[in-house]
């Protein structure tokens, strides 16, 4: 038996040598993505129709002066280069806190609905790996997407796990929605975008992103009118916006749904507020599909325990009720809350994906609350039903409900059964971060909230 071992090893070596000879020249020239010249932070978004187009964005060092997307219908065979098509990217440079980078964006159009494509990005000797995306079918079809609240802080160390576990739990998600505060300092890469995109890694290359700006995506988190240049360089979103609000207030129509992003950070400015309101009303009136989802960053009601209570956007609240919008997806409060306010719909969801957590103010409208959890939301869509799950980073269901539509368009809310006990422990540093009166009243407020629900 000992005499056979060297022969077996020689066969393995020969096989490996034969495989290397089959690699194409272009593949041999591809350099490790650890080099700044190599494409990185590669991500999919939509600028135009998801059924016939795909937008791609990426970053390189500023030594790279141009970029190209190569794409082809996906095949099981690895020998597809002969059919590859190319599209040139628009390239711009921006100097941030770490260095000057080149940002590349391209929008591939003329694609076939319901079709999987392979693609890579780069130029010269520097290329990404090949990845895949699939265009929307363009008609009614059951599908899923994922919603994330704020990631924001400790992104690479802990925020990354919610991104990855969400995809492991929902591998067939068609896209991801982020409700703002993806990062903490929107004008910086270090500890911000430099952690966010590596934190999700290949996920961003394979699953498109829809995002609404949070206050921390702005140069000044309290301003609302200075959305960082890095937002526009990193993402390529639709231009179907009010004039001057491109790529921050917009909508994406995916099959039978419309996802509307509103940059409500600009609400404080009268002209912006009116423009966003009029555009939103028109977007709701004209849509003829089955479901509308609206996402913006600030929760409709301030729920963090150290914030003043109150409805932030009263005229928008009335508009959403007028048009019977089923579901509003928000963040900012760094906790979980779900409920309805003064009408059967919308259902308002406030969620948090990252590790930075706040203690909750138990508002009367809340039907389910949660603290001290990293969460993602899985949403199943069919023509007559929305099935919503909020899940922990471990994949456990924390909240669940359905919204069912009958033939006349009437909506019915059905809460999930056998939901786990609510996680309502205050944050680890609760007593250090909050005023004494807010700390001392917490137990009483929590008891009143739970008693109210029992009744």
TrEMBL record:
Pfam families per record: Metallophos, Pur_ac_phosph_N
Keywords of the record: Signal
Occurrences of domain Fibronectin type-III (ranges): 38-138
Highest taxon, organism lineage: Bacteria
The keyword Signal is annotated on this UniProt entry: yes
Gene Ontology molecular function: any one: metal ion binding
Protein name in the entry: Calcineurin-like phosphoesterase
Biological source species: Algoriphagus zhangzhouensis
């Amino acid at each position: 038996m000992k005499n056979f071992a060297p022969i077996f090893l020689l066969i393995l070596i020969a096989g490996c040598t034969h495989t290397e000879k089959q690699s194409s020249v272009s593949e041999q020239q591809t350099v490790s993505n650890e080099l700044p010249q190599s494409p990185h932070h590669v991500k999919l978004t939509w600028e135009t129709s998801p059924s016939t187009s795909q937008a791609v964005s990426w970053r390189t060092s500023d030594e790279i002066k141009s970029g190209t997307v190569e794409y082809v219908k996906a095949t099981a065979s690895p020998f597809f280069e002969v059919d590859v098509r190319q599209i040139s990217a628009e390239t711009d440079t921006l100097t941030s806190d770490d260095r000057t980078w080149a940002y590349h964006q391209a929008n591939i159009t003329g694609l076939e609905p319901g079709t999987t494509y392979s693609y890579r990005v780069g130029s010269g000797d520097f290329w990404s790996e090949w990845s895949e995306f699939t265009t929307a079918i363009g008609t009614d079809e059951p599908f899923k997407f994922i919603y994330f609240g704020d990631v924001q802080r400790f992104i690479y160390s802990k925020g990354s796990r919610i991104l990855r576990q969400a995809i492991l739990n929902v591998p067939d998600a068609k896209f991801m929605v982020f409700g703002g505060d993806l990062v903490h300092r929107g004008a910086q890469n270090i500890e911000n975008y430099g952690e966010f995109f590596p934190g999700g890694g290949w996920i961003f290359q394979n699953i498109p992103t829809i995002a609404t700006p949070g206050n921390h995506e702005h140069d000044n988190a309290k301003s609302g009118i200075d959305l960082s240049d890095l937002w526009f360089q990193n993402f390529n979103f639709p231009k179907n916006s009010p004039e001057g609000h491109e790529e921050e207030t917009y909508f994406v129509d995916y099959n039978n749904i419309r996802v509307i992003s509103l940059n409500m950070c600009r609400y404080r400015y009268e002209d912006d507020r009116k423009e966003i309101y009029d555009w939103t009303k028109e977007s709701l009136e004209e849509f003829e599909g089955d479901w509308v989802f609206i996402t913006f960053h600030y929760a409709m009601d301030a729920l963090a325990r150290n914030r003043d209570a109150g409805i932030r956007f009263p005229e928008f609240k009335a508009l959403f009720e007028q048009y019977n919008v089923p579901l509003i997806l928000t963040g900012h409060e760094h906790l979980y809350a779900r409920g309805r306010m003064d009408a059967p719909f919308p259902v308002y969801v406030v969620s948090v994906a990252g590790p930075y957590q706040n203690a909750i103010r138990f508002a009367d409208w809340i039907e389910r609350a949660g603290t001290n959890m990293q969460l993602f939301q899985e949403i199943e869509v069919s023509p007559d039903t929305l099935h919503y799950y909020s899940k922990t980073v471990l994949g456990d269901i924390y909240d669940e409900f359905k919204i069912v539509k009958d033939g006349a368009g009437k909506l019915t809310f059905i809460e999930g059964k056998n939901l786990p006990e609510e996680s309502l422990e205050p944050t680890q540093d609760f007593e250090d971060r909050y005023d004494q009166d807010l700390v001392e009243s917490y137990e009483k407020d929590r008891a009143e909230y739970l008693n109210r629900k029992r009744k």
